[in-house]
Design a protein that fits this description.
D-Maltodextrin-Binding Protein, domain 2, 2 domains, 11 helices
Length: 326
């Protein structure tokens, strides 16, 4: 009888352990560790400054239970960073800034991945671009640049980052609308372009507000014109390109994507955190101080925006003879 009872208890214990082992475990809430915020461009540029400001705000307001850790992975007009994040498929612990070159670099065949290899999370702002010279430059207006460029084709140097990116496209618009040819010099980031301009190595630069506003406020550079429909609130004395007879209008988006196929619950957490950030005082101040325009899009709307602009950039790059033929 004792042996029977012993067997009964052993059998019961085995059944209990088996049931416990087979029971589904409740997943821990996302995120359990820090989220890597990858900037596919060099330090000091608009994307880098924007990302680091956001990471600091996430920490201050505890928008996620764990921090955002910013890491720069420059190279290949963003292609190095794109490939790195795309390789983290299904991993929600990676977030990446996505601007113009997120679409244009793959279209030019400089990246093995494209925007379809990612999960759009949200877009936050638009940048209005500007043409900038040193404060002691002989160029006082757009017309000064146009006159000199027409007299000296391809001699005037203009700095920017990423061939086919926003800087490059803005330069192309200026050339087309003014009937001039400039010598476009490529750098890894807006920070490097700033250094080249201040050092006298280039005549002018294309910049988004976040890259040039501090230099402008410090009196080190002069903004000749902005690529916007109306004057920027942060620089009301600076005329638009259109006011000066150059029909050039262009804005760049600033959004964030994650690797493809991340869990839906994690995607929602990231989207919600970005939306909450867009309502903070830090974000509002950054937008005002850097002459940006708020442009919130959730993941679905950002996906539609990317689809639309991928088609538009295909046409633009074909006209620039930069489109990769297949």
């Amino acid at each position: 009888m004792k042996n029977v009872l012993k067997l009964f208890f052993v059998f019961g214990a085995v059944l209990l352990l088996t049931a416990i082992a087979g029971a589904p475990l409740e997943a821990a809430p996302f995120p359990e560790k820090h989220v890597n915020l990858i900037v596919p461009y060099g330090a000091g540029g608009g994307s880098d400054v924007f990302a680091r400001t956001m990471a600091a705000a996430f920490e201050k307001y505890k928008l996620l239970p764990t921090p955002l850790v910013v890491e720069n992975k420059p190279g290949g007009s963003g292609g190095v960073g794109f490939a790195y994040v795309a390789s983290k498929k299904s991993n929600p612990y990676y977030l990446m800034s996505a601007v113009t070159s997120f679409l244009t670099t793959p279209l030019m065949g400089k990246s093995p991945v494209n925007y379809r290899n990612f999960t759009p999370i949200a877009n936050l702002v638009f940048d209005e671009y500007m043409l900038v010279v040193r404060v002691d430059s002989k160029y006082k207006s757009i017309q000064d640049v146009v006159a000199d460029a027409k007299a000296n084709p391809k001699k005037l140097t203009i700095g920017g980052s990423a061939i086919g990116g926003a800087d490059s496209i803005s330069t192309r618009l200026l050339e087309q609308e003014a009937g001039i040819q400039l010598n476009y010099i490529v750098f890894n980031s807006g920070g490097e372009v700033n250094g080249a301009l201040l050092g006298g190595h280039i005549d002018m630069m294309i910049a988004n507000p976040g890259e040039a506003v501090d230099l402008f406020k410090a009196g080190k550079v002069r903004i000749l014109g902005v690529y916007s429909e109306k004057r920027l609130a942060g620089a009301p004395d600076v005329p638009t390109m259109k006011e000066q007879g150059i029909n050039a209008v262009y804005v760049q988006n600033r959004g964030f994507c994650a690797p493809a196929n991340i869990p839906e619950d994690a995607r929602k957490v990231l989207e919600k955190a970005l939306f909450e950030y867009s309502k903070t005082d830090i974000f509002k101040k950054y937008v005002t101080d850097n002459m940006l325009t708020e442009a919130w899009m959730d993941g679905n709307d950002f996906q539609k925006f990317l689809d639309d602009w991928n088609a538009k950039y295909t046409i633009i790059l074909r006209e620039m003879k930069l489109l990769k033929t297949r």
